[in-house]
MGMT family protein (Brevibacillus brevis), 117 residues
Amino acid sequence: MKPFTQRVVAIIAGIPPGQVMTYGQIAALAGSPRGARQVVRILHSMSKKYKLPWHRVINGKGKIALPEEESFTVQKMFLEAEGVAVSEAGEVDLAVYQYNVERTLEEHVFVDPQDGE
């Protein structure tokens, strides 16, 4: 796994319940400020494998970005179950619910379960 991917996985895994991060915010923290689309790809391909809290990642406008109605509804329900207020349009108040990581990336430890560690 590439270092950027490892950092993205570690950051997403570290988002606490009841808070959200944006794709762009995660990309910047992982070292690629313009890598929001890469975060989308990583999230899509690795969420199940690494049991990532995919529902805690939204777009930079504070909205659920999933186009399918079923996926949109599932993400909205998961966020609401954690206490995040989500409008009918899928909007989240980033001023209230955005997770601002104060730790350095070195504190985010990622262990690949396939490495057996």
Notes: Helices lie at 3-13, 23-29, 36-46, 69-81, 94-97.
